[in-house]
Amino acid sequence: MARDVWVLHGPNLGILGRREPRLYGKVSLASIDRVIVELGQELGLNVATFQTNHEGALVDRLTVAMDEVDGCLLNPAALSHGSLALADTLRSMTIPVVEVHLTNLYARERDRQISLTGGAVAGVIMGFGPASYELGLHALAAMIAPAKARRKRT
Amino acid sequence: MARDVWVLHGPNLGILGRREPRLYGKVSLASIDRVIVELGQELGLNVATFQTNHEGALVDRLTVAMDEVDGCLLNPAALSHGSLALADTLRSMTIPVVEVHLTNLYARERDRQISLTGGAVAGVIMGFGPASYELGLHALAAMIAPAKARRKRT
Amino acid sequence: MARDVWVLHGPNLGILGRREPRLYGKVSLASIDRVIVELGQELGLNVATFQTNHEGALVDRLTVAMDEVDGCLLNPAALSHGSLALADTLRSMTIPVVEVHLTNLYARERDRQISLTGGAVAGVIMGFGPASYELGLHALAAMIAPAKARRKRT
Amino acid sequence: MARDVWVLHGPNLGILGRREPRLYGKVSLASIDRVIVELGQELGLNVATFQTNHEGALVDRLTVAMDEVDGCLLNPAALSHGSLALADTLRSMTIPVVEVHLTNLYARERDRQISLTGGAVAGVIMGFGPASYELGLHALAAMIAPAKARRKRT
Amino acid sequence: MARDVWVLHGPNLGILGRREPRLYGKVSLASIDRVIVELGQELGLNVATFQTNHEGALVDRLTVAMDEVDGCLLNPAALSHGSLALADTLRSMTIPVVEVHLTNLYARERDRQISLTGGAVAGVIMGFGPASYELGLHALAAMIAPAKARRKRT
Amino acid sequence: MARDVWVLHGPNLGILGRREPRLYGKVSLASIDRVIVELGQELGLNVATFQTNHEGALVDRLTVAMDEVDGCLLNPAALSHGSLALADTLRSMTIPVVEVHLTNLYARERDRQISLTGGAVAGVIMGFGPASYELGLHALAAMIAPAKARRKRT
Amino acid sequence: MARDVWVLHGPNLGILGRREPRLYGKVSLASIDRVIVELGQELGLNVATFQTNHEGALVDRLTVAMDEVDGCLLNPAALSHGSLALADTLRSMTIPVVEVHLTNLYARERDRQISLTGGAVAGVIMGFGPASYELGLHALAAMIAPAKARRKRT
Amino acid sequence: MARDVWVLHGPNLGILGRREPRLYGKVSLASIDRVIVELGQELGLNVATFQTNHEGALVDRLTVAMDEVDGCLLNPAALSHGSLALADTLRSMTIPVVEVHLTNLYARERDRQISLTGGAVAGVIMGFGPASYELGLHALAAMIAPAKARRKRT
Amino acid sequence: MARDVWVLHGPNLGILGRREPRLYGKVSLASIDRVIVELGQELGLNVATFQTNHEGALVDRLTVAMDEVDGCLLNPAALSHGSLALADTLRSMTIPVVEVHLTNLYARERDRQISLTGGAVAGVIMGFGPASYELGLHALAAMIAPAKARRKRT
Amino acid sequence: MARDVWVLHGPNLGILGRREPRLYGKVSLASIDRVIVELGQELGLNVATFQTNHEGALVDRLTVAMDEVDGCLLNPAALSHGSLALADTLRSMTIPVVEVHLTNLYARERDRQISLTGGAVAGVIMGFGPASYELGLHALAAMIAPAKARRKRT
Amino acid sequence: MARDVWVLHGPNLGILGRREPRLYGKVSLASIDRVIVELGQELGLNVATFQTNHEGALVDRLTVAMDEVDGCLLNPAALSHGSLALADTLRSMTIPVVEVHLTNLYARERDRQISLTGGAVAGVIMGFGPASYELGLHALAAMIAPAKARRKRT
Amino acid sequence: MARDVWVLHGPNLGILGRREPRLYGKVSLASIDRVIVELGQELGLNVATFQTNHEGALVDRLTVAMDEVDGCLLNPAALSHGSLALADTLRSMTIPVVEVHLTNLYARERDRQISLTGGAVAGVIMGFGPASYELGLHALAAMIAPAKARRKRT
Q: Which of A73, A95, C95, F34 has the most CB atoms less than 10 A away?
């Protein structure tokens, strides 16, 4: 039986492909979402995606997620570095959450090197561009249904 | 034709399983190495592993790696946070390197939240325990031979 | 004649009881609201309550409050420590506002010890769990109608 | 042919005139908007104005602006000092943006002296009260249609 | 049967009313003590008060309090911000202690915003002038004999 | 009757056009001065310009300005960030001063983001290249003779 | 008619002459007191001296001083740098206080360069050894009875 | 001929055994004193012990010690981290002083890791619980009468 | 035989009386100079005064002073807090220098509390307004010709 | 039956006696080792000593020590202040380790006052020169075989 | 054909030999200039020297140097650590500049360890006393006419 | 008679020419060594070179150098900024050591601007690429045999 997963994208990810392409690449968010939904099907996961520029909407959505789905993949984008509210929500989650970033935060300017939200989730994958999402979905799948996912990967 | 990969473990990883198990778990390094070598075979990678407690030995080994292998998976452990020498070596690498950590650095004490070496590699995966290595090898495989690795994962 | 008071709850208070119960306890927000409304009746205050995870919605509501009610009881939660926007609104208020916290901020981690919003209100009560709200309503009542409230308490 | 410009006002500017008048003056936002719209007409600019207390709504609006108008005049108010999300949006803008402030940030308390968003726009004008908006519109006009605007000013 | 409570006032509170009245008001300590003793009687508490300018004397008194009374109300005044010794004593207390301040520390200069001692007690009430003591005594009463105190307040 | 205005340029502005042109552009100071003098004539201002690399000479000149002219336009250049002496002079001025910068300080390296002198004048305009001076002269004109200048601009 | 002045010496001044003589010299406190008392007589001041190692005792004594004498000369010694309690007392004084130091604090190690108490008195004289007390008494005399003291000095 | 030694205990050590036993253990101060006095006899030292919660009393006592005894063993407890006055006294001592701590300061929270007083004595022993005092007395004995103490230990 | 002394005034002291009179008072520099010259005559000192807004001119003058006069009284004004060059000159002086300030630096904003130059002279007198200069001349006289100056003062 | 103990000396201790003798004394390491081995015999401990300038070699040796000996005495020298790798090893040790230093770190320059490794061992003894090792061996003996060691000392 | 070089000396170098000789030695500036001029002749360089205590004069001189000479040797002395204006000039230079210091800045107090101006020139030579100038002239010669200078040195 | 000199290269210098050539150039270490050995012959110095990536090996080698050679030229590379152990060794050296860097540390990122090791040697030369070594050898030669080397250079 398939599990449900939400993939949540934070501020400015809606303009991906147009946004500082030297840093974030030219792939659009729609195209990332398509790849992730397909990969979800292979891993036995029903993936739904969601993008918002509102911190509060991410908190709302994660609050609901606890009752609705089996795990979340989250790219908090700029909110990673300062949103204590979002970090608090994540610390309260009763389902696994994996944080992903397109860029490698440790290679960014000082104020972006620490992720407050990253410290409130299971694990973080960053720096692989769109592939960060794919690796993140693999990691999440293993946490939701470890045995089966491991079979898949081998 | 198979590609060659080195998996390099930094200080104190040799005593994994005995070392602060509440943080680092009870799995031994030998057992992680075994899983990684096997996974390498599935991904068409010849994996050789190496552990050292000497910063200089990691620098030496990475220097050689540029001429010997196609990519490296590195867990610099405690050296992540202060070894400018190791970060310099990584910044000079002409082959892809992926950094992995058993624990989620963002959930650790302040002095361990930033990885100097992490800022000198392609990407970082952390917090998934031994699975960090597995995800890292997938990420590395995709960088060495993207097309093929992607087929594998799907 | 009864006075009107709004009790405003900030981010993540909607999941109270489920959220890190070791820190925040097991009482739900609905139950706190019920106690506060009842206490309001005893103190001659019409209490209405409101919870939101959106910083902007708190600013909106406080802006309206100036024209609608006689005072506010506010728990800004995580927004206490970083929301300059909310602090600016509070500094502009023409009615008394009391800030309350379930936990004692001075006993929390360093980044939560200072409340920016707390510096923009009349007074702060923290560390008494749900009773912080009750003490806060007493304090607010005394500011709205000092003489009468004092009689009540004695 | 007239150009289109949006003037965006951030948190707490809706209560201008009532808000800490010693700092921000007694002029209402409506009256500033009226002056700016008129000045726009003289400069050949269709000016539309918008105020919000929500960081996310500013990000949304700027995202749309790239496709809808020729330039923006922005007063991010309290968000200037901490909103990395808004700064990221501004850094992605493909149309000119000018930031204005009623007060002189350099004469304010330490935490308000640096504007993160200010570092992501073309230029900043601050300290002239409502006239900051007028000077900003002149500056913006010159960037959108330099030759014509210059003639205007001389 | 009545419970015993000590109200302890730290340095410079003896000159209350003469001391920077713009900040601390014109009410004398004697008058605050009188109100508190009376309120204690209503709450079934025998209240004794004590003022000292000596950090060591506060430590001495709190040490004795553990064996003599059921709870303490403490205004450590300037010692709040730097006395590790006093904070250590408070952390060792086996009876409840509530800290109160006449002024709102979050609205004071930076060095006074954090209370070391505040982090070692149950809760903190600040900013309400002499009413801080009254609210504090209510809070303390509820901790010493919760059921009865609650009845009192309703 | 025309008013008198001094435009004062600080250190290194004499080599404008030759100095780090990627940052400061290729326009010479002479050419900026010419434009400003002409604009002054349109605005009814007698503009005289002055450049010096000596902090003391700027202090001397501003001291004299109080008795000689009706307002100053000042670009303190590198002195903005560290000259307490110059800031002290500006704080003593009895005529309006507007500070301008060719570059946007908020987009510069950290040590140049705060302007000490900027905190001692009426307002600051920065980031518009030579146009910063033009906008600054408009702002100054409005302060010296508000009504007339406003008519001019509309 | 003679005025009354107290000269208060803080911690470790009792062992003057034996205490780090390279820094503080070889003159004993008794000998300083003798010179000060004599100088007081010439200036028409009844000088009484007092030494204590207890912060609380200095606070007590200053509290009494307000009702008993016309001014104080204070050397808070090590308490200068950290005693907020003493600084609070000084800020409440209704009679003039002059702070003196044997050594020049600006020439000492970093932690001793700022005097919290110094910021709460009229003026500070430091670095002249025992002569700091003599200059301080002159300064105090001028504040208590300006006209007469000035005659003396001229 | 026996030498005289004072063992001085600082704030909160009087409630040892009742104070945060997880940190400081369950042994009472009386029992530590008993062991130390006995050990003193074996080492040819007349040991007298003293406990106070007053910084000033420790300074007083150390001042007297210089004339009365041959060495001191000191546990300044919380005063270690902030008492410049006590550090000044220690720096003036003409007899050897050894500082001891029950807990290992380097394993405590950041604000307790540095001992100001520790930098003003001969040596520091910390982390061995009550045995820190015993080791400290051995160290002190060796400093007072090196040859004999060494014979004792071998 | 009379000694020679230079009194050197730093930046912005030339506009004393007009400069932020709330802080610096309404007395002009000329009037201070007159008082100082007269006082010098009483003390047997030929006093010459000098004011400059140029750091380099102060360094030049002090360099010459070593060969020309017997001591200097210096008010470095804003240069106190940042001029390493001036501090270096002072540290090289072979004649005594006394630093004076009209205001009490410890009561000023944080950046003005430390005087770099103050750490390079014999002693500092601050906070007494124009009387700081008078006290400073007494202090200097005592250093140049101690015996005689002392007689004068008594 | 005798217990086994390793005494490990870190970087630059091999040149003891020649190295900054004002700080570290003129005793050679060989001579310290000789005293320690002898003292070990008296305490029933087989002591072996080891010196290295390589951080990695200390980590290697400690890793082996867990299986080979009953306790370690460690002087990490310069590595104390920055080696997270060594601190990690120490935190993993299953046998007691005591850290010793020849000098008193609290009396050294700021960067040497905190010992990272010191926070990962049982206790620290510092400042007694070569006697630090002797006291450390006593402390270690007591931890390995408490009852017996105590008899010895008494 | 000989090249022209200016050697510029900053503040306080004019009193070299008399200035803190323990740090800066006893050689006069005239004697250094003589050696440098002679060495220049050997290297085919016409060397002119210049000393000033005025930051602005150094900026003036360097500005002219660009049009007059082929390279500069600069000792900015105390201006190295804080003069952004001078660093800006150096960053604009179109001829090579070498910075020299008599003392080794890394061995000086913290505030002198970083040279702002040093970061704006080609290279820095420090710590060799007057020989720093000689080495610097060699370095400069190699940059102006590499081939010839190299022949000289070999 | 020729003197012996060791030239020691730290971490990552072995891959010079391949390592971030934009920063460090394209010249290999072998080629630098060849030039230095030849220059040594001209200066009467037997030069031997050594490269290692191990901090401990540099410490070992410098320890030996004291007994074997007359001086050292050292490029500690990344170890400059953090190796207290290496700095300690250098501070113990009884022969002259000169530190060189290919790049100008003052023009690098903040963490590389200070050299701990640089503060423990005679002097530092940086920013001249391979020529830094040549200048360094000249400087060292002058220290080993000043008179002769000076003749050489002229």
A: A73
Three-state SS string over chain B comes to CCEEEEEEECCCHHHCCCCCHHHHCCCCHHHHHHHHHHHHHHHCEEEEEEECCCHHHHHHHHHHHHHHCCEEEEECHHHHHCCHHHHHHHHHCCCCEEEEECCCHHHCCHHHCCCCCHHHCCEEEECCCCHHHHHHHHHHHHHHCHHHHHHHHC
Least confident of C48-57, I115-124, I140-149: I140-149
Contact E106 C124 (CB under 8 A): yes
Minimum-distance CB partner of J57 among L56, L66, L94: L56
How far apart are the C-alpha atoms of G88 and A78, rounded to whole Å?
43
D contacts of A79 (beta carbons < 8 Å)? 84-85
Select the CATH number that applies to the domain covering A3-153 from these four: 2.60.120.10, 3.40.50.9100, 3.50.50.60, 3.40.50.10310.
Answer: 3.40.50.9100
Q: Name chain J contacts of H142, Cβ cutoff 8 Å.
A: 128, 131
Catalytic hit among I9, I24, I106, I133? I24
**In chain J, where the domains are located:** 3-153
pTM for the full model?
A: 0.94
ipTM score of complex: 0.92
Q: List the single range of D7-16, H105-114, I75-84, J14-23 with lowest mean pLDDT.
A: J14-23
Q: Between J116, J123, J134, which is nearest H126 by CB?
A: J123
Cβ pair D107:F119 closer than 8 A: yes
Query: What is the C-alpha to C-alpha distance for residues G52 and G79, in angstroms, rounded to an integer?
Result: 11
pLDDT tens, residue by residue, A131-149? 999 999 999 999 996 544 4
Q: State how far the Cα of C66 lies from the Cα of C60, in Å rounded to an integer.
A: 11
**Nearest to residue D65, comparing CAs of D41, D49, D44, D85?**
D49
- From chain L, pick out residues whose CB is under 8 angstroms from the CB of K122: 104, 127-128
**Interface G:B, ≥3 CB–CB pairs < 8 Å:** no
Active site residue L138: no
Q: At what angle do helices D29-43 and D131-144 cross, to 10 degrees?
A: 30
Selection from K49, K68, K66 nearest residue K10 by Cα: K49
Residue contact B55–L55, C-beta within 8 A: yes
CB within 8 Å: L11 and B54:
no
Instruction: Quote the strand ranges of A40-153, DSSP E.
Output: 45-51, 71-75, 97-101, 123-126
Contacts 24+ apart (CB under 8 A), E21-24: E23/E103, E24/E102, E24/E103
Mean pLDDT of L69-96: 97
Q: Do H55 and E60 touch (CB under 8 A)?
A: no
Q: What is the pLDDT of residue I1?
A: 65
- Chain F positions touching D120 (Cβ under 8 A) are 107
Residue E154, pLDDT above cutoff 80: no
Mutation target for A interface from C53, C84, C102, C110: give the one with most A CBs within 10 A: C53
Q: Which of B114, B118, B127 sits opposite A123 (nearest CB)?
A: B127
Q: What percent of chain J shows pLDDT beyond 90?
A: 85
| Residues E68-116 pLDDT 10s | 999 999 999 999 999 999 999 999 999 999 999 999 999 999 999 999 9
Give the integer Cα–Cα distance in Å for E64 and L100: 65
Report the chain J residue with the minimal C-alpha distance to residue B76: J85
Residue I96 pLDDT greater than 60, yes or no: yes
Q: What percent of chain D has pLDDT over 90?
A: 85
pLDDT at G154 over 60: no
Nearest chain B residue to A131 by CA: give it: B139
CB contact D64 to A (< 8 Å)? no
pLDDT in tens, G22-55: 888 889 999 999 999 999 999 999 999 999 999 9
Chains C and E share 3 or more Cβ pairs within 8 Å:
yes
